[in-house]
Amino acid sequence: MDLITLTLNKNHLWSGITFIGLGTLTYLANRYINNTKQTKNQSYYKPAELIKGIPNLNYLQTQHSTQHSTQHIIYIFWNGDINTTYLLIDLLLQDKIIQPIYIERYTIIKELEKETLEKIIKQNNINKKNQMNTNTNKDKQFLNTIVELKKIQDYELKQLEILRLMILSKYPEFNTNLFPTTYITSIEKDLEMTSHFYNILQELKPIYYDGIDLIEQIIRYIKYSGYIKINNLNNTVPRILLGCHKNYKNYDLLLKLINKNIVSVIELPLKNMNNEDINYVCSSFFPNEIMNYFLSHKKIKQ
């Protein structure tokens, strides 16, 4: 099958994308490919979330027989917002086994761009001493991205900690079905896969795409996580859920990517709902303490 594809190298990226709308994506892709460090999927659990006698995913994947088979686990990318928290509690009430996943995007980008970041910070310190500011727009954009991701990640990590305590306090029976959150700090590189993703974006020519790189990270993480391979051994299809709904900033683009069979492995149970629908359902579904938490934090930018 002869296909002309855009490969992720500096020359092709800058010459192949001919419209301004994907300029930022080109820059992000170049940063990605220019970093030659090999990465693998890496994650950790928080000690406070590990309960004695309760299995976690790493344990299950190394055992041939356990009380919880991996084929029955539902994976949810949980960032502590009302959408994914609704999915998580709803499925737990159905006695489902839930493996929450959180991607530390700030941690990943900081690690990949460590040398660049250190260079910019060093230059900033020199500029301050000389009372000068010679940062390029690209450097400023990169620093602003890092700062914003750090702010969001710190907030979300705190949310996850608080909500887990609230959920297990209200529903102690969930202890056996709510696995410790898998915190992702590194995702394996796949140049062909990432190339294909950006090729499709070029084909779709989206007007808005800010943050869509998270979807690429998710599908790349899933490919190398072992979830699909393990489930396929049992002839079952894994359920991997995102809490995106109609008000998700990249909703239309995400649906187009699904139609292009780019993210077909991911389920969007809330895709036909919007913010008002979610808030209405949760107001009668959530325990008062959890709903009040979201109401008191809804004005905080996430």
Q: Give the strand content.
A: 5-15%
* N-to-C order of helices and strands: HHEHEHEHHHEHHHEHEHH
Q: List segments where confidence is low: pLDDT < 50 over at least 5 consecutive residues.
A: 1-20, 63-67
What's the structural domain tally? 1
Major β-sheet strand ordering: 1-4-3-2-5-6
- Helix fraction bin: 40-55%
Biggest beta sheet attributes: 6 strands, mixed
Distance between the termini: 43 Å
Number of helices: 13
Global morphology:
globular
Number of strands: 6
Rounded Rg: 21 Å
What value does the average pLDDT take?
A: 79
Structural class by secondary-structure content: alpha/beta
Please give a handful of descriptors for the protein shown.
302 residues; 13 helices; 6 strands; single chain
Describe this structure in words.
With 302 residues, the protein is α/β, with parallel strands linked by helices. The chain has one domain (10-297). The chain has helices at residues 10-16, 23-34, 57-61, 82-93, 105-112, 114-129, 137-170, 191-204, 213-225, 227-233, 251-259, 275-285, 288-297; strands spanning 42-44, 73-77, 97-103, 182-186, 239-241, 266-267. The protein has a 6-stranded mixed beta sheet. Helix 11 (251-259) links the parallel strand 5 (239-241) and strand 6 (266-267). Helix 5 runs antiparallel to helix 7 (137-170). The protein is globular.
Please provide a brief summary of the model.
The chain is α/β, with parallel strands linked by helices and 302 residues long. The chain has 13 helices and 6 strands.
List the helices and strands and how they pair.
Blueprint: H1 10-16, H2 23-34, E1 42-44, H3 57-61, E2 73-77, H4 82-93, E3 97-103, H5 105-112, H6 114-129, H7 137-170, E4 182-186, H8 191-204, H9 213-225, H10 227-233, E5 239-241, H11 251-259, E6 266-267, H12 275-285, H13 288-297
Helix pairs in contact: 5-7
